[in-house]
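[Structure tokenization] protein backbone as discrete codes

[Encoding] learned vocabulary of local backbone shapes

[Begin record] amino acids and matching fold tokens:

___
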Amino acid sequence: MPMVDIQNVRKQYAGGFEALKGVNLQIEEGEILALLGPNGAGKTTLISAICGITMPTSGTITVGGFDVVKNFRQARDLIGLVPQEINLEPFTKVIDAVRFTRGLFGKPKDDALIESILKRLSLWDKRDNRTMELSGGMKRRVLIAKALSHEPRVLFLDEPTAGVDVELRRDMWDVVEGLRQDGVTIILTTHYIEEAEAMADRIGVIRQGEILLVEKKDSLIARMGEKELIMELADPLAALPGALSDFDLVLSEDGTCLTYRYDTSAERTGIATLIATLSAQGIAIADMSSRQKSLEDIFVGLVDEHGEDAA
């Protein structure tokens, strides 16, 4: 059984706006799923529905086998949520804020656990600081500590590194990886494509309330990832010879570089034929390098493609 099971979930607001349009998604225990999508795609609405903050119009959601509507308390006990907005009581000490959240879930006092969480998040030295004295990055770490305080099995991170500097962002990646090793299921929404590329097992893309795809990160990049072969020429070309018109080639403005695009999943790349044709045309190559299409390229292409379909 999936840790999170979403079946045909719709969310329609009173004015008629449909934020979720029949979403189906299964998330396995211990995996990291990155949910990507432009602003207004439905990412936060979907998380809110799973966490019981927003009531779905139709469909079912279970967490650990518990229906989030019928068995709200049991399902919610399994979930930790790190919201997008930083909303902390400014005068509360860090350690008290984390202890209080654990108490809200009816968990017994456990100072050893709280200490472990704060140390893992590099917050132990700040435990007696009031939250208003912390930087934005440290406040976000407090939100994560609070979300972990009741030992959830599913952790939602809604834009967890927004406004955080690069060093803190990479520290958080390490924290997330440690949680995954503990068996925690993590659902991450992010605008930072490199974050998804660095951490996720699977990538989900959502647009206008619909899931466009959910696929393992590596297979997605392999399946949809074009490669580019960049060839630096020994002598510049004024224009591409007609003999090269059958190849997907782009000549740089200064005529010193040829870029060849090819599909990594194709049976033949055509590179050998291209090199032979260049040689026959007397075009000498001084150097060659290749570049894999990135997850960002794929994401932008998917969103643009479906945007055109909807238009």
